[in-house]
Amino acid sequence: MEQQRGQWSGRLGFILAAAGSAVGLGNLWKFPYIAWENNGGAFVLVYIIAVAIVGIPIMMAETLLGRRGKRDPIGTFRALAAGKRGARLWPGVGVLGVITGVIILSYYSVIAGWTLRYIGMAISGHLGELARQPDGLSGFFLGFIGSGDQQVLWTFCFMAATTLVVVFGVQNGIERAARILMPVLFSLLVVLVIYAMTMAGFGKAMAFIFRPNFGELTRGGVLEAVGHSFFTLSLGMGVMLTYGSYMRKQDSIPRAAVTISILDTVIAIMACMIMYSIIFSYDMPVAKSSAILFTTLPAVFFQMPGGALISALFYLLVAFAALTSTISLLEVVSSYAIDELGWQRRKATLTVAAAIFAFGILSALSVGGSDAPGNPTLSHINIIGRESTEGFFGTMDYLASNWCLPVGGFLIALFTGWALTRRETQEELEEGHGLMRFFPLWRFLIKFAAPAAVGAIIVSVILGAEYQ
Ligand code: PHE
Q1: CB of 415 sitting under 6 A from ligand 1
Q2: Total domains in the fold of the chain
Q3: Model confidence pLDDT, tens digit, residues 435-461
Q4: Pick from 16, 59, 210, 288: most CB atoms within 10 A?
């Protein structure tokens, strides 16, 4: 049976699915954490500039490649590079993307699984009990991540949820999930932001986020801001390319890219407003690890009226955000099996998901430090952080965030800016958009500014300069 290629039902379908991919643990956990480490203000500003001059142009590039190629990342590069110089090498960028998808999904689903456990804990009232005991939360957390069975179980649950959505395909699975989850997620965030506004620390939080002090900004901070713009916008590995391949010709790529990027950035800043208000109001010590989300925050939630409800909503929100991201990661790899190997969607998705889950067991077993000597400690657990390469989990994360995404993004910018002709790119960007006034600016950014900025990250990684 000839499979029909999936397509979004319309403009909103693409925007919601792509925003769903972009908004994830990167926004709700990572950004508040790194912005905090980098003293807010100036870092936030640099990050916004990075999104504008590197993120948005590359998102437009990836989407246009996908819509033009109408295939998975590998097939798209093969089709678009045909007859050009290096035609045989370019599909390698797609291969890198698919491999990166496998890597990121394998460890991202482990952390995502934690949120499921915590939703249950919040609802059952268990979390509240722990919050009342000294060291109750951190003791539980360490025991939880140190238990291999638990880790594998919850990773499995999250992968199963992800697979269930992707099996249903582009419109009935991915788009439908995003149409439900994204508005709920946004509403929950708005509720929490309003709640934060009533807190004593809100003013301080806003000043911390929006008052730049350039004296506090380091070179490493600048590079980290650029690097994070890739991760948070899901760029550099073919998510936007794959989602772009399901986009209709009558929808505007530039408008979609700008909308998605603004939404993603606003949500990251809202997450900061919520967390910093809590930190400033309750004068919490800030742990320098992922544990903030699972130990410090619940402690605070239960100092507030309605703690059980707030914490349940909060973990639900994080789970939803993570789910729409894992869906996109799985879709990249599945689309490869569908388009390149000619498999049916169901077979492709189930097989690929099973393989990634099997691989992810290595990460699941390493988060608690079972492959690190000694007892698990809070300090070496680090979600999507860059400093920890300890353990399998840390290595996968380091590889993906420091190498795969920047290198992928760099090559995507080079391909779109230099291998494709001006006419090819202009035609695709203006299709469904009309005359694009900013086309020359986009072309300048994609040819020069984006490769230069991303190149700087890659060089700094090679030279071993921490962009932390
Ligand atoms: N953008 C997602 C986040 O912020 C993570 C992600 C990266 C998803 C790369 C897909 C591809 O959490």
Answers
A1: no
A2: 1
A3: 999 999 999 999 999 999 999 988 988
A4: 59
